[in-house]
Write a structure and sequence with these properties.
Chain A: Pfam families: Gal_mutarotas_2, Glyco_hydro_31_2nd, Glyco_hydro_31_3rd. Chain A: Residues 199-225 are annotated as: Disordered. The complex is a heterodimer. Chain A is an alpha+beta fold. By secondary structure, chain B is of the alpha+beta class. The chains are: A alpha+beta, B alpha+beta.
Chain lengths: 972, 565
């Protein structure tokens, strides 16, 4: 769904077509066109004017505060350093005495991060050395120029302001209108008078008068730069009432050649050098028909960068919601400057180095340095700050069928019927904007959807669900309840003159609720109550689109930066808007169920922390092979920064996919976290059965593979919800020392046990998959063929091929009885796929709960087991002894891959009774199948013990039977 | 519809059956719970006490047709022959057979199917994944024996409704088919008529051809004397005019001589001629002595008689000293150039028409408008006669006029004959075109030709003109949109006449050209029953017509329903 064309009023249509018809880069700013970025980027490295005033040092138990001074203009900054629990350091820099408060991002951190004691180890006139706790970590603060280095033993992990690009545009009084009219000479005199006057009135002790001249020159120079007090882009003017306020800071990462993250961009997984091109931009925008491999901003922003080398993984979280640009430059360490104080450090001059520079338009510098050292540590650290992925209801992990638009109730019924007729499972059907009464969200088109409850009930009878779109632009219409209430409550975003901000979007003229306002969010949440949202039912969930926010006639198709959210400018809060919309919606869904049901909300715009509220998708892509390919690095990048529930429109939103592309996309999408097909209004229909029986069968098979693996997906999401470890992982996350995998982005891991390499090339006859891990073995999940790790494997593919490998050493639980929706499969039995590693052992988990409520959390109603196989024994250990849940699911089959033929297999129940289990061994594939263990997967689990006996002696003639131990081990 | 292979199963002795069912029930109780067992027993008792026929005993989900493969207490061989298993593994909720045949009554096999008996309605197979999935699929509720789903037996209801529908359908089909026969008859007749007409027309055309030729001869014969008479008349008139012009010229010459003879010596000298620079032959602005002499035929001076030859040399350029410059010939072309402008004014286009066209995408009508615009100007203003012709030609004499009238009559007759021929040609073309359409195997769709069928929705009126095009007209103003012109029959292979395809309609913005699929179903009337736009710019129409009604077999529709208890 998107910024494009449809039945708007003719005027809007005309306006918008003109701007949108051509894929128009000129609609969006380059760094040069964003005045603060241009100013910041013009600064030369190496000449930092900032100096730490060591005599202002204040050290409490966990906080160090120190003033910095800009020797050019004598403006003072306040530096705060915190040592945070879990091996993190927080660096905050603000103006010491800003003219007015600068924006500090609220609601993104879960809580005030827990701190740890800091202590000064050494202090002299050049700086000081702080101890960062264990592991010989030190933070060295160099006073002149100001610089921070974090070292561990002899190793520099990271340097801050080592290139001297700290820049902090202090707030200053706006020139009054008279000064514009007087001559430049008089003007500059007036400026100098004013600055003298202001420095006196501020009574800055060290603002030496001998520096007044210099300072005046600087300010004059500053003020001559264009765009500081007003900025024009295309036909839009930004009044900039607070003038220049941008900030910038640089970080150097010695030994680092690979950096990742800062989504959302259509780019490679490994971030590129931005020398000579635009920096990566973070500014949530509705980009019509976006281009691939481009640092341009997209719908969402997560200002988190992850660095990785064979030695160490670290992260930088730049907590700022304003327009942000990130420059990345990788070079060898010999070319960079190291301060005097670091001479003693052993730095290999041959080692590479990556320099990162962040620039934001307003707010303060607030950076969290996550020191790893392992990938898993960085994920834990970041999760401790912004929280983890919300745990979705199981059905949200199943297949979603969407289209702009399913025309009417009959269409919905017919599509639902189509899935049954073609025996294809699906859980959710989606309704885009056309389902509403004139794009008034929370309403239904009276002629097309006259009986929404009948429709929802029809779906419920099939144990299926629906998602309806609710966008944050509200039609300006006095007869529309949502609008008139927001207006009467005075909760709309205001324009710079204080009136309600209005812009064009789907409904025509629209207001934009101020979601940064807690009252607005609370009211919005309340609108999802069943008695407020007429026609809604409990199997209806919500989709928030256009929440960048998209404003068709606004600058860069978004809101004017001088619009007002209470006292704050839109400039300050822009990248947060989408997060708040999704949060308010998710809260609403929780509230409508009395806090019982887990919500499911999809969003297009997002920010750090959005993972707590639901799923995201990569927006309006196109039916092109390149878009299919890029969906992998795009979702991997999001996973690295906490947002695991990611997907791309299967089939591509714009344009018409060929049958081959559609099938390949289903195959890829079946192995990505959020699995939804979607299509533009103007494209031909593409329900899975419209491409001939062969393709229908291929698509059916891809979706069925998804459903079989739902127990594994569910367990991965449960784990990410608890640990912050991504669901979809680049190979380097699990194989951090294997340099060969650092840039791989055409394959990935789901959890640590499944490796997926979807076919993403047209007419592909084969793929080359890299199987990582020197000591690993991998099994083709379809043929059970065994492959050694640490090799590239060429694999011929057919149209039916979805190359997926299970890691030897893992146990994956599946439900092989595929039904028409995930709800229908809730009580079905499990099949355990035990893939033996090179040591003949395997481990895995099984997680079960009611699949849709918060009872797993509130009442501890769940089953969580560890399944371990070693020495011929499969053990189930309860990972959550204090939880309780009963399931009717049982174990129908155990498939042991890569094993040997046993003489017998015995199931022993808790009372000690032994039963021989029948089994089947396929010597060709070395797959042992245990027939119908029949034990309950939950409550009865602990009463059953179960022995397996393997034949260990070769050749089979000399039969020696050894009892090797328990499989189902009672361990309550 | 197929005739059922099996009807009711054979009725065995109730006692034996009771024992069997009880045992089976006990077995199933192990997996399905006591309630099912009780239920089964109750059912049994109930059915026995009523003395109605009872279903043959067989494992759950097995159709009667396959009952013989599931023999109790004998090893079961998968229906694909791949494996043989003990009978107690049939329906034990574990899939042993690759073909799923060991689990006809459980959801264990991914490719299994379950047979619902659906007594009172139609028996059916459902994928075994729908057993106990909480959704009632079989109207007899047998698919949900262990899911907790509350299903009601709706078979009787469905059966009754279906029978009603079938009956109604059969009725409609019967009547429709009768109508279709008529249509076929009519079409046959119509086709014959058309062919006869065509033959007639072709004969007629021959006659018309001849008539035209004859008329042409008559016309030409009449035109010859007319032409001659007119020429005579014209010649006489021209001679008369020439004499007048000569007189005028002579007068002018005399006048010029007098003007040129400045010194009035009775002769015009070279120098006197030189005063008239406009006579300069090389247009260098001056009339040199030599040039003047040249004009005077080499003489130094000429008298009135010799001036005659000089006058022929100079009269085109000569400007009278007394008279103003003659400007009329210059102005005339200018006026002619203005004419087209004036003509536009003379026939303005209705403005509302133009603006309406502007709103809409190009329509065929648009082109007509364009044609009109370039069509010849409605009135060509006759060029102004030059001054010399100001005297009109006298009317024809009576004799000439009579010849002209006769010729005109011949011309009119000829034109009329030619027009008749063209009309005949057109009609032949139309009939040939109509005969070329594929109106179905028995021409049963012929009657729709040249007809249009409308359906009014809340926003639009849809008009289907079979074999021509589909149109959509907004109810509240705006012009028609072409949703496609006749393409082809495009139904399924076994009967392509069930679907019509109309293509290449008005283009969609950034999308395909509009097209319409028309689905035909049997009915007594010919009506468009619904329209929709399932995909952008791809329309779907439901159209009922007797033309697609199939002959019904005379069997009672109720026997199609396989009743099994």
């Amino acid at each position: 769904m998107a910024a494009s064309y449809v039945s708007l009023l003719a005027v809007v249509l005309l306006f918008f077509c003109l701007s949108a018809h051509a894929v128009d880069r000129s609609n969006f700013k380059t760094c040069d066109q964003s005045s603060f970025c241009k100013r910041q980027r013009e600064l030369e490295p190496g000449q930092s004017p900032y100096r730490a005033l060591l005599d202002t040092l204040e050290l409490s138990n966990s906080r160090l505060a120190l003033q910095l001074i800009n020797d050019n203009n004598k403006v003072r900054l306040l530096l705060e350093l915190y040592r945070l629990q879990g091996n993190m350091t927080r660096v905050k820099i603000n103006e010491l005495k800003p003219l007015k408060p600068r924006y500090e991002v609220p609601d993104v951190l879960m809580a005030d991060p827990l701190t740890e004691p800091l202590s000064v180890v050494v202090q002299d006139e050049n700086g000081l050395v702080l101890s960062l706790g264990g592991a010989e970590q030190r933070l060295i603060l160099n006073a002149r120029p100001f610089r921070l280095d974090i070292i561990e033993g002899p190793q520099v992990l990271m340097s801050v302001n080592s290139r001297g690009l700290l820049a902090f545009e202090h707030l200053r009084a706006r020139k009054d209108t008279i000064s514009h009219k007087i001559s430049s000479t008089v003007g500059s005199m007036w400026d100098s008078l004013k600055s003298i006057f202001s420095s006196e009135s501020n009574s800055e002790e060290t603002a030496g008068q001998e520096n007044v001249g210099q300072q005046t020159d600087e300010i004059k120079e500053d003020e001559e730069k264009p765009g500081m007090w007003e900025e024009v882009f295309k036909t839009h003017s930004d009044s900039k009432p607070n003038g220049p306020s941008s900030i910038s800071l640089d970080f150097s990462l010695p030994g680092v050649e690979h950096v990742f993250g800062i989504p959302e961009h259509t780019d490679t997984l490994k971030l590129k050098n931005t020398d000579g091109s635009d920096p990566y931009r973070l500014y949530n925008l509705d980009v019509f028909q976006y281009e691939l491999h481009n640092p341009m901003a997209l719908y969402g922003s997560v200002p988190v960068l992850i660095s990785h080398s064979t030695e160490r993984t670290m992260g930088l979280f730049w907590l700022n919601a304003a327009e942000t640009w990130v420059d990345i430059s990788t070079s060898s360490a010999g070319q960079t400057m190291f301060g005097k104080m670091l001479d003693f450090v052993h730095g290999s001059s041959e080692a590479p180095q990556t320099d990162v520079r962040w620039m934001s338009e307003s707010g303060i510098i607030d950076v969290f340095i996550m020191l790893g050292p392992k990938p898993t540590d960085v994920f834990t650290q970041y999760a401790s700050l912004t929280g983890t992925q919300s745990f979705p209801p199981l059905s949200a992990l199943a297949y979603h069928q969407c289209r702009w638009n399913y025309n009417d109730q009959e269409d919905v019924r017919a599509v639902d019927q189509g899935f049954d007729e073609h025996d294809i499972p699906y859980d959710f059907i989606w309704l885009d904007i056309e389902h509403t009464d004139g794009k008034r969200y929370f309403t239904w088109d009276p002629s097309k959807f006259p009986q929404p409850k009948d429709m929802l009930q029809g779906l419920m009878d099939k144990r299926r669900k629906l998602v309806a779109i609710v966008d944050p632009h509200i039609k300006v219409d006095g007869d529309y309840k949502i609008h008139s209430e927001i207006r009467s409550k005075n909760l709309y975003v205001k324009n710079k003159d204080g009136g309600d901000y209005e812009g064009w979007c789907w409904p025509g003229n629209a207001g934009y609720p101020d979601f940064t306002n807690r009252d607005m969010r609370a009211w919005w949440s309340s609108m999802f109550a069943y008695d407020q949202y007429e026609g809604s039912m409990e199997n209806q969930y919500i989709w928030n689109d256009m929440n960048e926010p998209s404003v068709f006639n606004g600058p860069e198709v978004t809101m004017h930066k001088d619009a007002l959210h209470g006292v704050w400018e839109h400039r300050d809060v822009h990248n947060l808007y989408g997060l708040y919309v999704q949060k308010a919606t998710a809260d609403g869904l929780i509230q409508r169920s009395g806090g019982v049901e887990r919500p499911f909300v999809l969003t297009r715009a997002f920010f750090a922390g959005s993972q707590r509220y639901g799923a995201v998708w990569t927006g309006d892509n196109a039916a092109e092979w390149g878009h299919l390919k890029i969906s992998i690095p795009m979702c991997l990048s999001l996973g690295l920064v906490g947002i695991s529930f990611c997907g791309a429109d299967v089939g591509g939103f714009f344009k018409h996919p060929s049958a081959e592309l559609l099938v390949r996309w289903y195959q890829a999408g079946a192995y990505q976290p959020f699995f939804r097909a979607h299509a533009h209004l103007d494209t031909p229909r593409r329900e899975p059965w419209l491409f001939g029986p062969e393709n229908t069968a291929l698509i059916r098979e891809a979706i069925r593979q998804r459903y079989a693996l739902l127990p594994y997906w569910y367990q991965l999401f449960y784990n990410t919800h608890h640990t912050g470890q991504p669901v979809m992982r680049p190979l380097w996350v699990e194989y951090p020392e294997d340099f060969a995998v650092f840039t791989i982005e055409d394959e990935y891991l789901l959890g640590k046990d499944l490796l997926v390499h979807p076919v993403t090339d047209e007419g592909a006859k084969g793929i080359t998959v890299y199987l990582p891990g020197k000591h690993e073995v991998w099994f083709d999940v379809h043929t059970f063929e065994k492959h050694a790790g640490a090799q590239s494997l060429y694999m011929p593919v057919a149209m039916s091929s979805i190359p997926v490998f299970q890691r030897g050493g893992s146990v994956i639980c599946r439900k092989d009885r595929i039904r028409r929706s995930s709800s229908c499969m809730e009580s079905d039995p499990y099949t355990l796929y035990v893939a033996l590693g090179s040591q003949g052992s395997a481990e895995g988990e099984l997680y079960i709960d009611d699949f849709h409520t918060f009872d797993y959390e509130k009442k501890k109603e769940f089953i969580h087991r560890r399944l371990s196989f070693s020495d011929g024994t499969l053990t189930s250990r309860n990972l959550a002894p204090d939880s309780q849940f009963s399931t009717s699911s049982w174990i129908e089959k155990i498939v042991i891959i890569g094993g040997v033929q046993p003489s017998s297999v015995t199931l022993t129940t808790a009372d000690g009774a032994e039963t021989a289990l029948e089994f089947d061994f396929d010597s060709e594939t070395a797959v042992l199948t245990l027939r119908k263990p029949g034990v309950n997967a939950g409550a009865d689990w602990s009463y059953i013990t179960f022995f397996i006996v393997f034949l260990h002696i070769h050749p089979p003639e000399s039969v020696t039977v050894e009892r090797l131990g328990k499989i189902w081990n009672y361990s309550m | 519809m197929r005739t059922p292979v099996f009807l009711l199963g054979d009725v065995t002795h109730a006692a034996k059956r009771t024992a069997e069912v009880a045992r089976l029930c006990w077995e199933s109780a192990l997996t399905c719970g006591i309630m099912t067992c009780v239920h089964l027993l109750l059912t049994l008792v109930f059915t026995v006490s009523l003395g109605t026929p009872v279903e043959i005993h067989r494992p759950r989900g097995v159709p009667l047709t396959k009952r013989q493969f599931y023999e109790e207490n004998k090893p079961f061989t998968c229906l694909d022959g791949s494996k043989t298993i003990p009978f107690d593994r049939v329906n034990d909720d574990y899939c042993d057979c690759k073909d799923g045949s060991d689990e006809p009554g459980t959801p264990a096999c991914p490719n299994g199917s379950f047979h619902c008996t659906n007594a009172g309605y139609r028996p059916t197979f459902i994928p075994s994944s729908r057993i106990n999935d909480g959704i009632c699929d079989c109207c007899d509720t047998t698919d949900e024996y262990n899911s907790g789903a509350k299903c009601e037996n709706t078979c009787k209801d469905l059966g009754r409704k279906e029978r009603e529908v079938l009956q109604k359908m059969a009725e409609i089909t019967r009547e429709g088919f009768l109508l279709k026969r008529q249509l076929i008859e009519e079409a046959k007749k119509g086709k014959q008529e058309k062919q006869d007409k065509l033959t007639g027309m072709q004969d007629n055309k021959k006659q018309l051809d001849e008539k035209v030729e004859a008329m042409r001869t008559v016309k030409e014969t009449a035109e010859q004397p007319e032409k001659e008479a007119k020429e005579r008349h014209l010649k006489a008139w021209e001679e008369q005019m020439a004499a007048i012009r000569l007189e005028k010229d002579k007068a002018k010459m005399a006048e010029a001589f007098l003007e040129l003879d400045d010194n009035a010596d009775g002769v015009v000298s070279v120098s006197e001629l030189q005063t008239h620079a406009e006579l300069d032959p090389d247009a260098d602005g001056t009339l040199s002595e030599t040039e003047a002499q040249g004009l005077m035929g080499g003489a130094d001076q000429v008298d009135t008689s010799a001036f005659e030859s000089v006058w022929t040399n100079i009269k085109d350029k000569y400007k009278s000293e007394s008279q103003p410059v003659e400007s009329a010939p210059v102005e005339t072309p200018g006026e002619e150039m203005k004419e087209p402008v004036g003509d536009n004014d003379s026939e303005p286009y209705p403005e509302e028409d133009i603006s309406e066209e502007d709103d809409e995408e190009e329509d065929e009508d648009d082109y007509h408008e364009e044609d009109d615009k370039v069509r010849a100007p409605p009135s060509i203003r006759t060029p102004e006669k030059s001054q010399e012709d100001e005297e009109a030609m006298p009317p024809y004499d009576a004799e000439t006029q009579a010849l002209i009238d006769a010729a005109q009559r011949a011309r009119d007759d000829f034109n009329e004959a030619e027009k008749a021929l063209k009309e005949a040609d057109d009609q032949i073309g139309n009939i040939e075109k109509e005969l070329s359409f594929d109106f179905g195997p028995d021409a049963e769709f012929t009657y729709m030709y040249n007809q249009c069928y409308e359906l009014s929705t809340s926003e639009y009126i849809y008009r289907l003109c079979p074999f021509n095009r589909v149109l959509q007209k907004p109810k509240y103003g705006g012009s028609e949109t072409n949703l496609g012109t006749w393409g082809a029959w495009s139904g399924p292979e076994n009967n392509k006449y069930l679907v019509m395809k109309y293509e290449h309609g008005t283009g969609c913005w950034q999308g395909p050209n509009r097209s319409t699929t028309v689905k035909l179903t049997c009915g007594k009337e010919t009506v468009v029953t619904s329209t929709s736009e399932p995909s952008r710019c791809e329309y779907l129409m439901e159209f009922i017509t007797p033309a697609v009604c199939q002959e019904t077999s005379n069997t009672d529709p109720s026997t199609h329903t396989h009743v099994e208890l």
